[in-house]
Protein 1
Amino acid sequence: MQRLFLYTMLLLVSVCFSQNKQLLYGFTEIPQALLANPGAKVSHKGYFGIPFLSHLHVNAGASGVSAFDLFADDGNDFNVKLRNVVDNLKPKDFFTATQQLELFSGGFAFGPEYNKNQYISFGLYQETDVISYFPRDLALLGLEGNAPNINRPFRLNQVNFSAEVLSVFHVGYNKRHNDKITYGIRGKLYSSIANINSTRNDGQFITENGDTNILRQTFNLDLEVQSSGIANLSEEDVANTLRKRVLLGGNLGLGVDLGFTYQIDSQWYVDASLLDFGFISHTKDVENYEVKGDFVFEGVDPFFIGETNPQSADQFWSNIEEEFEDLFEVDTTQTKYTKLRPVKLNTSLNYAFGKQKLEDCNCTSEDGGYLNRIGGQLYAIARSRGPQLALTAYYYRRLLSSLSMKATYTVDSYSFSNIGLGVSANLGGFNMYLLTDNLLQYRNIYDSQSVSLQLGFNYVFRNDK
């Protein structure tokens, strides 16, 4: 039983997610690229997303471990592999989960007929965001127990996790100011469906030789868990409650996305975006838990069956359990709290080359009619223990007027050999895209530390040539 928590935690490591969308960023044939940069250049007159199918995004990845490390059929003992995984993981290793599902979306250009240089986009999507850092000391405690670790402090500040399920209403404005500058802004209204977080923990647990018993456990605790949207969920009509929370019935917040593109010359351009600069105020269905203070536990005196102490074994262990539970006083409150959204930064430098023939050129194209692009992109997301970074090099190619592809090579916390490929195709007015990451690991997906998939279907009103 002492390893149950550890096994569960390491299983979660093997199925975790990330928020980087390096394949989608700058791939402006796909309307959803405006979600990654509201200031990207727009090359179509308008679009509407196929409801529930226009954008689905899931990633799987792990910092420092894969499922293959634990469950490979290689003849090695599982306990040895488990020990190796725990030894290799550090407190700064993390596992995250992010998923997005677009419920509906659309956009349209407006302005003078000869120069429709402004664009409105809008929609609603549901998002899940989970992150937990690896609590190495607790993992060792679960693996070894405290008996071989006398006088060793187990640090509790390594406990750091948060999880949020929310819906996001958004409206974006994009303007091509002139031939060099395009900028955009997107306003967001968040509706939190459920939240739980514990990111401000401190203290330690230590086992020492006891005075009145063999061992003494000393706890110095400063632990806090905040939650909203969870406590009363089981008492309600769950389906109806969740539907209301998706449609602005949850805990509300505001956010903004900013972005721009600057055309340096006919072939070089730079762009950047800042996403989810905002907050959510948690005021409904709030339940928080705090444990603070110093506690000492030495168990109870051993029992001896006899006339003076006719205590049974069951009674003895019941007394231990009751004393241990009474030792910690959990303070439950309904204090409101506010959480910042994880801010994300994208920026890239790009070079276009390979001019199209004039008769094939789409003069409204975002790259001025060039067939190829190469560039580098930096991604960063703010987390409770510092930013997480990724660096991507890419190659883009327009194969046909209705078919484009993008290949990426990404270095991040998960891998130094992440190769991705994305394809966008237009059949009539229908746009279909498929973007997938870490292709080299598909030979053994269980040994992969990062696998990503994005896909969607839209109807796009394309500009005339």
Protein 2
Amino acid sequence: MEDFWSTTVQVAGGKENSLINRRMIFRILGILLLIEAMLFLVCMGVSLFYGEDDYIYFVYTALINAGVGSVLIFLGRHAKNLVTRRDGYCIVAFTWLLFTAFGMLPFYISGSIPGLADAFFETMSGFTTTGATVLDDIESLTHGMLFWRSFTHWIGGLGIIFFTIVVLPIFGVGNQVLFKAEATGVTHDKIHPKVSIMAKWLWTVYSILTLVETVLLVFGGMGWFDAVCHAFGTTATGGFSTKQASVAYWNSPFIEYVIAIFMILSAMNFSLYFMCMKGRFGQLFRDDETKWFLGSILAATLLIAASLVVRNGYGMEEAFRKSLFQVATLHTSSGFATDDYMNWAPFTWVILIYTMLAGGCTGSTSGGIKMMRLLIVVRNVKNEFRRMMHPRAVLPIKVNRMAVSQSTVSGVSTFILLYLGCIFVGWLVYMFMGLGLTEALSVTVSSVGNAGLALGAFGPAYSWNALPEAGKWLSSFLMLLGRLELFGILLMFSPSFWKKR
């Protein structure tokens, strides 16, 4: 670890120096904390607007952020203007941890969420857009606290670093490195050579979706405050609601359909929307991953709807609506709910576990394995069967009529094995803590997949407050692990990452 504290970095010419530029890391982390301080001031304005006294807690937290951020910037003075890949992974990992650690302070200092583990869990669930909550009386929170809780979703939806690149393009030559370190995945559709411009276009799409949904929810009977908070949670595929009963509180088919549709839209590749804005609508309907994703949602919805009609006596429309919403919320890794699926037939739980694992599309705000990876694996399996019949045949795997490289296929297979391995380990640890087999599995899958809902005692009718304290810390780690898609966090635990090479 001593190499981390070296002030030198790798430079052109081959001179043997440390590979981590700590001064630049301090500088960037300091600037990010100052930006988070400004976000607290937005929430302070919400509290003042509603005449609530808890605005002072956002002031305190903003001052703490500003103080620590200023110290980090001071430590990062005279930093070399270079961000390596190792620097990028360090900055992204520490940013998410720091944003959560400081982001929980309004909850903790005000007593809204008194437990340290609980406050950290709730904030990590917000930033990672997981949507799991430990709160048993959400309505008791003030408007300012509820707004901050939902705002964490919206900030973390496309990524904290990504958000910052748009707000303040401070990183210069490091934009590309930081983007790649945070926006992990199978493919990155570069809609513009400059990351800062691409970020602005994607955030434009993100903002439009949020605005349109907000207006529709208000039209459907929600107040403006609730509509904004739910739009934040939907477009970020997060799932925090301002009501303990979640979306079921309104008992409105119109609101349920609007949120279900926007959850699905938000789980599709945002770069495709940019193509549509450019007039290339055909690309959206020709995209293989999108077709697989929508087909998966339709199949799961119809299967569960049929079960609800036959086994639970639901009417046709209600069965379709309840099924669509619950499938959408789990397939897109959101955390909203309109029905308690623990009252459904057990075989439907298996389908819901699949939707949690599958997740949404690459280039979206959703979690899970992602449909692109599943698509590549399924086509690879299909090719293996063909290869048994035709050993000498050249059988490339194609997605959107383009051949996928063997290195990508290998990377996808490795990711899925590691993903399932992490779930298996988490499953065992939760069972060791005393959770039942079903609860332990579903909590792990939900945490790693950023889904927000689980089974049994952690289903939609309950909060996650029943988790032991150690389980809340573990779940917080699994949320971050899943949000940064495993490698970005696990890499930090590799001794070779910190050594001079």
Protein 3
Amino acid sequence: MIVLVLNCGSSSLKYQVLDMKSDNDFTLMAKGLVERIGEKVGALTHKVGDGKYSVEMPIPDHTVGIKAVLDLLVSKEHGVLKSLSDIDAVGHRVAHGGEYFKGSALVDDTTEAEIEKLCVLAPLHNPANLLGVRAVKELMPGTPQVTVFDTAFHQTMPDYAYIYPLPYEYYEKYSVRRYGFHGSSHKFVSKRAAEFAGLELENSKIITCHLGNGSSITAVKDGKCIDTSMGFTPQEGVPMGTRSGAIDPTIIPFIAGKEGFGPADVEKMLNKKSGLLGISGVSSDCRDIEEAAANGNVRASLAQNILAYSIKKIVGSYAAALGGVDCIVFTGGIGENSAPTRRDVCDGLEFLGVKINQEVNDATHGKDTMISTPDSKVKVCVIATNEELVIARDTMNIVNNLKK
């Protein structure tokens, strides 16, 4: 089955085309990125194998962007398909599934309506995701579509993990609760880590650390999420590239009063000016911060220390919530590539039985590697995430079940 995977943002879309023979037997045929949708001039980058093609063109909306991708996929010079009918199904990443979607779903009128209702909980992401669904419906009528939700993996959390200690009426009236995000990544790497570490997923205690510009940590017991660090929005949890993560909420009205901030100013401060950027004053990129710290920048070093310390605290609390831990997993841009961050997080976890091979850790970048020593009671590994594969797998399985 040939599956087109789409990940639509507000002004961009990523795509992959995978030939799915089974969950573990697949071929990546092409991938790419459409950027600056809605601006005067957009950009499309298309990759097939080692080949790369880029073009600038007006891309006023997502329908035009997706049509440009489809045209490329069947073009004589850069294409990988004979015709669009070769695409058996389309899978979409959708940010928020609320409490309605416990798993991935076939697109029908009800699915669209429920995603639209949830736009109030994810106003930057769900509308863009929905635009992708509707663009495909217009351009490829009759092609099955599947939506895969960032929040779905976390729907197994118990109520005492997801209910906030606020007046309960706000949960009943407005669905204010912990939802969690990066679900496809946590689902993928926890399963892959169990296989890699020789654990039985259904009888395991795993902590997955998805660390990047946005970061979240998840406690996975017997293959199911029991807690996660992101909350009602992706703002909660550890410090991120430009997001503050968890802070004392009373800080917000205090600063707003001192600075004369309105709601938009506060949101901009918390989401765009805080985190690693706000602490370091250097950059939101961990690579820049590591370089600045190595050159003696005190605030860059502070940003590194705050990040590692925050991650370590959550890892420790999740070890308690799980009643122990078999495996700690690092993934995402920082998790897969930042040896100093992994080292600093694990430093001090010896009481859990964590022992790191520093030489292996220092040499590991972006590939599946066991970085703990053979005698470490807790396995520690780096697993390269693949959210697009999760989407393709779910799409294939749901569409195949339709045929039975």
Protein 4
Amino acid sequence: MNKRITAAVLAAALTLSVTAFTGCNDSKDNGSSKTASDTSASAGALEKTSFNLGHLNSTAHLLGFVAKEEGYFKEEGLDVTLTLFSSASELATGLETDKLDAAFIGSVPSITFQSKGHDLTIFGGAMTNGHGYVIKPQFVEGLDKWDVSILKGRNVASVKNSVQDAELQILLKDKGIEIGEGENKVNIVYFDSQKDAYNALQNDSIDAVSAYSPYTSLAESQGYKIVYRCSEEKLLENQPCCRQVASTAALSKYPNSYKAFERALIKAYKFTQENQEQTIKDVKKYIDIEENLIKTELYGGYGTSVPDPDKQGTVALKKSIVELGYTDDYDIDKLYNTDIYKNALESLIKESPDDKVYTELKKHFDEFE
């Protein structure tokens, strides 16, 4: 299990064609002899087959992209539509209004939504690590290395209720650096979405910005400097980022359909581990940037996209942000379902007992459930 862009350039790099999201190619023949009826039988009769999956403009959500493009959803008897959203709050609203059946939502917003009474359950993973902060190059001239302290006296754009914002506050607290205006403080300026925060870097008043994938690699490719990547910070090692989230009621009402959904994502993970080149091409259909940047984000060692729910890691993160005062404490056990992933993985292992990828996933799950 592994561990200056101008506004015009950024807009061009991150603009996704309508067809990439609404007119994806039909599922491919990936060599499997199984039919939808065969695999759905292993999951039990599906209570519903039409699924809507919400995601952000991030390479972190590649499991959904690959499951769609390589035909794994179809193989599991599901007709899945992927829809792009701009923020975690929009995704949560989509789930609560039944416009979405599942969504990839950051771990921190997932936790804060739950703590505020939203009946949303985490049932799988999507990415670990994969984000950090970037800064304008003039602020690091003459320095050989730097850490979060370089942000002192700077205006930093971020997104409230996000993983990267919580991580920044954890690092600042560890260094004894206060948040606010002043030479020895870090002034955090909040925006509604990652894209808005990133575009604000074009303003003279903003010095640095939070970045989840692929913004970090895009920034570096255009001359910005990376203050830190969370995967390189001891305090943030193996930090669960995006989680698979659904309404609690839906998970209870359609258990077989969610098991089939999870089987498709697990198959997609296996594909990403064995077919890097095609995985990059699949992701590019949704995140239209240079393939070398996609490769850096997916396989550069800065983040891993794994379907495991990683309950231990998420619980530890909850504890950290509660201590930080980021959210109120609550009983997360009621809103965390690991059985769907467990049952889906076990069914795949039963079909392919010698598969090394599935076996490794099972070993990790048993250790970190």
